[in-house]
Target: Cyclin-dependent kinases regulatory subunit
Amino acid sequence: MSSEEEEIHYSRKYNDDVYEYRHVHVPMKLAEKFPNRVMTEKEWRGFGIQQSPGWVHYMIHGPERHVLLFRRPLPKEVPENNAGSTNNAEEETSKNNAEKDAEKDASESNAGSEAPTFLRNRFRYL
Model:
């Protein structure tokens, strides 16, 4: 048996609208040890399969038990108005605080205003 037949091979990733997929080819002798069900991450890692976090063994293809089928959810898209922002909640809080400070400053500066009564009744001071 050649060393190529004894190695684990990882396919390129492919996807649909919901998931990213890949399949992993393992040696036939190793596949004989697999349970007759999908494996947990701990189980497939125990057989020497190495992938980044998030991959789930989701299907068994009976005729080719040496090919494991994996998938993981695609990352959620960031709305366009949030695209370049690193921390939107922090930015929004900062913006709200700045607006409140500006309103407070404006009301304090107008509190002692000596505008004539007819102007104070007709115009709203900001």
Notes: Residues 9-73 form a domain with the Cyclin-Dependent Kinase Subunit Type 2 fold (CATH 3.30.170.10). The first helix runs from residue 28 to 31.
